[in-house]
Amino acid sequence: MIRTYRPEFDGLRTVAVYLVVLFHSGLALATGGFVGVDLFFVLSGFLVSSVILAEVERTDSFALGRFYARRARRLLPAAVVVVVAVAGVFTVLWSVPARISLVGDARSALLYYSNWHFADAAGDYFAADSEKSPFLHFWSLSIEEQFYVFFPLLVLLLVVLKRVALLRWIVGALLVCSVAAQVYWAGVDVDRAYYGTDARLYQLLAGVLLALALQRRPQPTPRRVAVAAGWLSLLALLVLGSGLLDVSASWRGLGACAAAVVLLGALAQTEGAALNRVLGTRIPVFLGKISYGTYLWHWPVIVALTTVLDSGPLVIAVLATGVSTGLAALSYEVLEMPVRKAAVLDRLRWSSVVAGLAVSTLVAVVVAPGLLEQDRRPEVAAAAGPASGAPGGRASVPADIDWKKVVDDHGAVQSCTVDDVDACRDHRGAGTRVLLVGDSQAQMMVPMFRRLARDRDWDMSFNVLPGCTWQEELTNSKMGAEGSEDCRRAREGWYDDVLPQLDPDVVILLARPRDDVEEWGDVVSRRDGPREPLDRLTWETTSATLEKVSALVPHVLVVSRLVMPETFDPTDCLASASTLGQCSVPVPDGGTPVDGYVSAVAAEHPNVELLNLNPAFCEGAPWCLPVVDGQVVWRDDHHYTAAYVKARQRPVWRLLSRTGAFEGS
C-alpha cells in the first residue's frame, strides 16, 4: 500500500489523459485511446482506497466528513467553472435548437448522474446527436463520484462493526458481479456496457483490491520481474490505446484494466526504477497534477474547434492539447489549489460539502439553463440548404418561434402485441377501419390521423414505434437494446396474429427509407438472420411483408419518400437565417429503391398502391419552405413537426380520398 506521495503516479495520469485527448481528436493512431479512462478508474480506485486504508490502519477509525470535504474541494470548483464557461461559449457558437438538449446534459454533469443520462440518450432514437454534447465526458466523472460516495460508506460501516477484514471479500464479490455485468451488457447493449456504473465499477474495485493486496505486505515480487512487468504492462496499455488491435470496447476495457493493475503493482514495488524515474520527471508530474482540469476542458474544446474549423484530426489534436492544457494549468493555479489549500475550509468539513453541493445544484438548475436557453443567434452560421427562388423565400424568419416546442414535437407512439390487441385501437368509429404502421415518420402523422378518424368516424388503429420500420423482419441497431426488443414484439409475427384481429379495410405503411448502403449498410439487418447485402435485404423483406398484408387487407397504401432536408438541420438553419429561402428544401428527383420495390409489388397486386403525400406538405414544389402559415415545417433533418402535419389535414385527405380506398368516408 502507498503511504507517501509517489510522483510516478501523477506521471501515469499524464499518459491516461492524453490517450483520451488523442482519441477524442479522431486520430487514427489512437482509436482505442478511451482506455485512458479505464486507467484513470483503476488508478483512482487504487490511490483513494490507499489513503482510506492507511487512515483506518493508523487510527482504527475513518473521518468520513474530512474525506467528503476533500473530494468536494478537489472536484466541484473546477467542474462548476467548466460547466458555466462551456454553457456561455456554446450560447455564442450554437443556435437555440442545438442548445436545448444541453440543458439536461449540463444538469446531469453537475449532479453526477451523467453516465446514466447519456446511457438513456444512447438508446433514445431522437437523441442520435448526444455524442456531440460538450458535456458528454462527464459520464466518467459521474461514475467516479458515485464510487467516492459508496466506497467510504462501506469502509465506515465495516469500521463501526469492527469487520474491516471482510472488505477484501466484499470488494472481490462486487468486482466479480461488475465484470459479469460488463460481459452481459456488452452482448446486449454496448452503450449500457460502456456507461453503466454496474458494468464499469470493476475497474475502480480492481484498484481497491490491489491496494488491499499490497496492504498485507506479501513477499515482494522479485525486482527484475516487477520492473519487466511494469514496462510490458505500459506497452500493453499503449497498444490497446492504438488502432493496432481490432477488439470490442468491452474486451479492450477488460484488457486495459488488467494491464493497469499490473502496471500499478509494479510501480508500487519498484520505487527508483527506470520507469518510475521516467514517469516521475518534472513535466509528466506537472501534467499529471493538472490532468483533472485537462480532462474537464479537452472535450468541450474539441467540440468547439470542430464547430468553427474544418480541419483534420491532427490539427484538432494539436490545438485541443495546447488549449486544454493551458486552461487546466490556469485553473490549477488560480482556482483549484487555492481552494484545496484554504485553511479555513479544513475546519468546515461538512459545511464545505453542503456549500459545494448547493453551488453545484444552483448552477445545474438555474445558471446553466439560463445561459443555454437564451434566444440569440449564434456567431457561427449553421449549415443551410441550397439558395432558392421559392415563392415566399424572401420572407423573414418569424421572431417568435418556440424552439423547444418545435424540437420536442415528435407526435405520438402507440403499438400492441398479440397479448394486448386493444392497445393498438384508438378511435372506435362506425366507418372505415384504418391502420397506420410505421416508425418515427409515421409517429409524426399520428395526431393528424386521430383527428381525421374523429372527423370521419373511422375505426382507427396504430402500430407505430420510432426506428421500427414496417417491414416485418428488419431491425435497426440505432434503436438500442430496449428499442430493438420493443420493435421485435411489435413486428415479429404481428401481421399473422394481430392484423387479422384488427381486420382493417385500409393499411397505411409509412417509414423513413433505409436503403442507402453508405448510411444504413451496417445498421439495418434481418432480425436474427445473417448479414446480407442491403439491396437484397430490403427487396426481400419489403415484398414478403406486402405479400402478407395484401392477402389480408383490401387496400394497402405505402407512403413514398417524403421531402426532408436530409443534409442539414432545418431548425439550426432557421435559428441562424434571416430569410426563409436560406433554409428551403428542394424536392428530390425520383424515388428511393424501396419505392421501386413497392411499385414492383403493386404491379402484381392491384390492392397495393404507392402513395405520394408530398403535394400536401410542399405546395411550392420544386422548393419547400421551412415555415408555412406560421407553422415550422421540419423539426429535424428527417421529420416534420406533428403540428405542421396536423395543419395539413385537408390536403392529405384529398390525396387519400383519390386512392379510392376510403369510399363512403
UniProtKB/TrEMBL annotation:
GO terms for cellular component: membrane. Keywords: Membrane, Transmembrane, Transmembrane helix. One of its GO terms (molecular function) is acyltransferase activity, transferring groups other than amino-acyl groups. Residues 422-646 form the SGNH domain. One of its GO terms (biological process) is lipopolysaccharide biosynthetic process. The keyword Membrane applies. Residues 8-332 form the Acyltransferase domain. The chain crosses the membrane at residues 12-30, 36-54, 75-96, 138-159, 166-187, 193-213, 225-245, 251-269, 290-308, 314-332, 353-372. This is Peptidoglycan/LPS O-acetylase OafA/YrhL. It comes from Nocardioides aromaticivorans.
